[in-house]
Design brief:
Strand content: 35-45%
Number of strands: 24
Oligomer: single chain
CATH superfamily of the largest domain: Glucose Permease (Domain IIA)
CATH topology of the largest domain: Glucose Permease (Domain IIA)
CATH architecture of the largest domain: Distorted Sandwich
Largest sheet: 10 strands, antiparallel
Number of helices: 4
Shape: globular
Number of domains: 3
CATH class of the largest domain: Mainly Beta
Distance between the termini: 48 Å
């Protein structure tokens, strides 16, 4: 209710509430002392007393209205804010994990303002493909943030094609902060830190093989639901650790290590296609799975592989046995996650809630 509301209640053709009262400050809107009020003298018409009674009734009504307005305003101020992720034009964008850091995988969930036949995005110079989930009426796309990414705000540029063939777009800024990673010193055989000419040639050949494998990824989604740990075991080393081999800094640990004995069954973290199953110099016996949308999982240092290139595997299917082949200090399983050439934190991927 506004202060400027017009009270036009009339009785016997007289205005009963002066307009000046409506504009006066609340502290001045009090009843005058009783002594100041005119008294009803004998013989005075009853209409004069009735006017005063109407005046007081309307004054009380106005004060009640002001209290009600203040109550409504207080309630409005205490109402919950609009859901985060709600954008201009009806776009709703959410992501997991809620707080993004360098080295993290991320799944974007998008609810556009119109029915779409396709949705894609550009983020940090990478293309993101999306698939539609009828159960949630939303589009899902997997992406990642490299360890080298600096803390900043990066635009997610969405582009959709409506069912009528027209194009719609939206840009949402996404903040990335710096993650905290540890350092560790490791001692390994000298051939892995100072390889001979023959070993360097083997490393060069392996690099060519891996480049060819990584080029054959499929943009279509193969993963289905949540990613699961490949073994049930304690984690012995985490992602992002700065590794110093034999006193010299060599690399960042780009995976997750599980402390398992030789011969432990290793299962696929999710459904996918086998891109590689065989020995490499540093990785030892390894399996590379393509889960679609540019996302790969790698299983290193195996004692034995149970699949071959081209095989379709289901999540939880056995793909090999753990070991200590390649550059390893002993039997364990190294799980790596790679997205469009960027290595990501497997622990974060395993915690994402996916459709």
């Amino acid at each position: 209710m506004s202060r400027k509301m017009a009270f036009s209640a009339r009785c016997s053709g007289e205005d009963v509430l002066p307009a000046a009262f409506l504009s006066a400050p609340p502290t001045l809107r009090h009843r005058a002392p009783a002594a100041a009020e005119p008294r009803i003298r004998e013989g005075e018409g009853i209409s004069s007393a009735g006017s005063r009674r109407r005046y007081h009734r309307l004054t009380a009504a106005l004060l009640l209205a002001m209290v009600t307005l203040a109550t409504l305003r207080a309630a409005a101020a205490g109402s919950p804010a609009a859901p985060s992720g709600k954008g201009v034009g009806g776009w709703t964008i959410q992501w997991q994990p809620a707080s993004l850091v360098n080295g993290a995988p991320v799944v974007f969930q998008v609810a556009p303002p119109a029915r779409l036949s396709g949705l894609s995005a550009k983020w940090m110079q990478h293309d993101i493909s999306f698939t539609y989930d009828p159960a949630t009426h939303a589009w899902y796309g997997i992406a990642g943030i490299s360890l080298e990414t600096r803390p900043a705000t990066y635009p997610l540029e969405l582009k959709g094609i409506t069912s009528k063939g027209s194009e719609i777009s939206f840009v949402r800024k996404v903040a990335v902060r710096r993650g905290k990673y540890a350092s560790v010193a490791v001692t390994v055989a000298q051939r892995y830190t100072e390889p001979s000419a023959e070993q360097l040639e083997r490393i060069r050949q392996d690099k060519t093989v891996k480049q060819d494998v990584f080029r054959r990824t499929d943009s279509e989604r193969e993963w289905l639901g949540k990613f699961r740990p490949p073994v049930d075991a304690r984690v012995s080393d985490v992602f992002g650790t700065r590794r110093t081999f034999n006193g010299k800094f060599q690399s960042m640990h780009q995976g997750l290590d599980y402390a398992v004995p030789q011969g432990t069954p290793v299962s696929a973290a999710n459904a996918g296609t086998v891109l590689l199953a065989g020995p490499l110099y540093f990785e030892g016996n390894c399996v590379v799975l393509d889960h679609g949308q540019g996302l790969l999982t790698l299983y290193l240092h195996l004692s034995e592989t149970k699949v071959k290139a081209g095989d379709k595997v289901k999540g939880g299917q056995e793909i090999g046995l753990s070991g200590g082949t390649g550059r390893a200090t002993g039997p364990h399983l190294h799980l790596a996650v790679r997205w469009q050439g960027v290595y990501l934190n497997p622990a974060t991927l395993l915690n994402l809630k996916l459709p």
